[in-house]
Amino acid sequence: EPFVADEYIERLAWRTPGGGSRGGEAFDPKRLLEEFVNHIQELQVMDERIQRKVEKLEQQCQKEAKEFAKKVQELQKSNQVAFQHFQELDEHISYVATKVCHLGDQLEGVNTPRQRAVEAQKLMKYFNEFLDGELKSDVFTNSEKIKEAADIIQKLHLIAQELPFDRFSEVKSKIASKYHDLECQLIQEFTSAQRRGEISRMREVAAVLLHFKGYSHCVDVYIKQCQEGAFLRNDVFEDAAILCQRVNKQVGEVFSNPETVLAKLIQNIFEVKLQSYVKDQLEEHRKSDAEQYLKNLYDLYTRTTNLSSKLMEFNLGTDKQTFLSKLIKSIFISYLENYIEVEIGYLKSRSAMILQRYYDSKNHQKRSIGTGGIQDLKERIRQRTNLPLGPSIDTHGETFLSQEVVVNLLQETKQAFERCHRLSDPSDLPKNAFRIFSMLVEFLCTEHIDYALETGLAGIPSSDSKNANLYFLDVVHQANTIFHLFDKQFNDHLMPLISSSPKLSECLQKKKDIIEQMEVKLDMGIDRTLNCMIGQMKHILAAEQRKTDFKPEDENNVLIQYTNACVKVCGYVRKQVEKIRNSMDGKNVDTVLMEFGVRFHRLIYEHLQQYSYSCMGGMLAICDVAEYRKCAKDFKIALVLQLFDTLHALCNLLVVAPDNLKQVCSGEQLANLDKNILHSFVQLRVDYRSARLARHFS
Fold first, then answer.
1. Alpha-carbon distance 517 to 450, whole Å?
2. Are 153 and 280 in the same domain?
3. CATH code, domain carrying 640
4. How far apart are CA 327 and CA 268, in angstroms?
5. Pick from 131, 270, 341, 553: CA 20 to 30 A from residue 193's CA?
6. What letter does residue 273 receive in the DSSP assignment?
7. pTM of the model
8. φ and ψ at 685, to 5 degrees?
9. For residue 124, is it within any domain?
10. Residue where one domain finishes, among candidates 258, 288, 307
């Protein structure tokens, strides 16, 4: 531990008798001083002793350092001597190695011609045997030496190719015959080894056959035997993937060019197995069942491309992507060339059938919506005047819109888009997708929605009809839902196919045009429906409102809070408001309700202008307007509520005392109104002709 002087002195004083208050002893400074002096002397003696020891150790250390330095110098000299010896030895080894290499070159220069001469002598000996017509050498008679015989006959066959035919025709034919026999034996041996599963023997035979013309036949035999028993299940694509996986592990151990052999196997599978399978599956339905044909084509093409993706992980040479694409194209090219025509034809017939089946279920004979000059003229007149041209049709509450039909049409189109994406050439994809979209527009938007709108418009009764049933808002509600589904499919399934092509703007414009065209008809139908609602309310007021309601015979015996006409009109309005809310969404609700509210206000305003009001009648009119105002609150439209607030204030002019007329007219709600309007309401009072009232209002 570190030395602390204070603590050391404290311990020394504590141990000294009289050095402190320990044990009740008195403090003795002399004794403590004596102890300190003695202890200092002891420390001095100890210091001298340690100092002598340190000096002795330093001397010893210096001596040993000198001896070590001397020893290092001696080792350095020895190392230099050893390095010189090593250099001399290295030079000597290099010299000897040079001599040995030179001698080896000389020996090789002598041995190579000798080996060639020996090889040529052997070949001449074997050639003589073919000349004599009798093969005596052990290499030709011993079946175990087929490898050596193959090497010899392959060389003799090359030599025979150079000999003139007229002099050596017989020997050339014998060599060729032996060449062919050995080739067949080697292939047979390879076949047997493959069946036994002897990979090493297969590798040996394949290496020998590599220099023979029949090497490709050996590969063909290997490919054929690999496929024996490989396609036993119903899923030919899974079988092919498993087979290629297995062969990929083995082919590198057998052949020197495994990627070529594996590529040839895959080519054989595609051109034989898959092509025949695809043909069987498609030709069966090609003429008779377009739906099944398209489903099978999409499924087979998808499974083939998935198989191709699995095969991409194998080594098939440099450009395996192009290789596999060509194989797929060779199988499907005859089916893909006219795919889109089949798709459009099927989609057209299928969509027409879905619509016809729906109309048949409704026992409805579809009307033809005319085209041409007269129809266009009627359409322009109707858009500008909002007049119903032609007889009204009773639809019996049927909207002729079906979500089931729409879902079926969209589902068929969705599947068509998926097939188009998979089966179309990338350059034709936007064009094909646009054709499918055009079919959707034709059958969903024109043949179904637009027809329902036309029928709905024709079914709207005239505004002066009594007890008319208004179903057009149901058409609006269903059309709105269908538009959302249509727009979702446009964004989810069509946009990805055309987003980067010129067809995008064409599709967007077509969609915009069809929606605008339908919005015009929807607006027209809603406007005419609102007119019919107002017409119904007019009939209620005409039937229920009596002149005596606002000019009762007995002013003191009025027991009702508001008139019967008011009750029925408010009940009718509340139902229509609820129906509008259920039929619209978003800002359309407020827009239609505001228009309905404004027309409602105008109707009540004009209706009140038709009567004369006594004092009690005026009070009843105020009560009616208060009820109308309460009904207007259900609209939740500020403008409508403001109009009825103003009307309520105007009705106060019917009951206010003549002396207070000017004060009421200058109130907050009436101050900004035209004086003629105020005057028109004051004129409705039965006491208007009194000089006093006329004087106060002038």
1. 9
2. yes
3. 1.20.58
4. 10
5. 270
6. I
7. 0.69
8. -75, 140
9. no
10. 307
Report the alpha-carbon distance of residue 698 to residue 692 in Å, rounded. Answer: 10
Q: What is the pLDDT of residue 203?
A: 84
Q: Are 572 and 684 members of one domain?
A: yes
426's enclosing H/E stretch is none
Instruction: Confirm if 406 and 457 have CB atoms less than 8 A apart.
Output: no
Asked if residue 224 and residue 164 are part of one domain, the reply reads: yes
Do 532 and 554 sit in the same domain of this protein? no
Range of the domain at 259: 140-307
Q: What does the alpha-carbon distance between residue 212 and residue 491 come to, in Å, rounded to a whole number? A: 62
Average pLDDT over residues 479-496: 92
Q: Is residue 274 part of a domain?
A: yes
153 and 232 co-located in one domain: yes
Look at residue 372 in the predicted model and tell me its pLDDT. Answer: 41
Q: Identify whether residues 442 and 463 lie together within a single domain.
A: yes
Task: Check if the beta carbon of residue 143 is closer than 8 Å to that of residue 134.
Answer: no
Helix (H) or strand (E) holding 270: none
DSSP for 378-437?
HHHHHHHH----S-----TT-----HHHHHHHHHHHHHHHHHHHHHS-TTTHHHHHHHHH
The torsion angles phi and psi of 522, rounded to 5 degrees, stand at: -65, -45
Number of neighbouring beta carbons within 10 Å of residue 662: 12
582-612 pLDDT tens trace: 988 889 999 999 999 999 999 999 999 998 8
Let me know if residue 174 belongs to a domain: yes
| 178-228 pLDDT tens trace | 667 677 777 788 888 888 888 888 888 787 777 677 678 888 888 888 888
Of the candidates 415, 579, 411, 421, the residue with the CA atom closest to the CA atom of residue 495: 421
Query: Using an 8 Å Cβ cutoff, are 211 and 158 in contact?
Result: no
Amino acid in position 138: D
Q: How would DSSP label each residue in 127-162?
A: HHHHHHT----HHHH-GGGHHHHHHHHHHHHHHHHH
Joined tokens for residue 236: 């030919």
Residues 263 and 291 in one domain: yes
Question: How many structural domains does the chain have?
Answer: 4
Inside any domain, residue 353? no
Q: Three-state SS for 613? A: strand
- Amino acid at the residue 297: L
pLDDT in tens, 230-254: 787 778 888 888 888 888 888 888 8
Hunting for tokens 């027309």 — which residue is that?
599
Last residue of a domain, one of 61, 83, 117: 117
Q: Are residues 569 and 518 in the same domain?
A: no
d(CA 525, CA 458): 9
What's the chain's Rg over C-alpha atoms?
56
Could you count the other beta carbons within 10 Å of the beta carbon of residue 83?
10
Average pLDDT of the residues in 644-672: 83
- Residue 502 is given by DSSP the state T
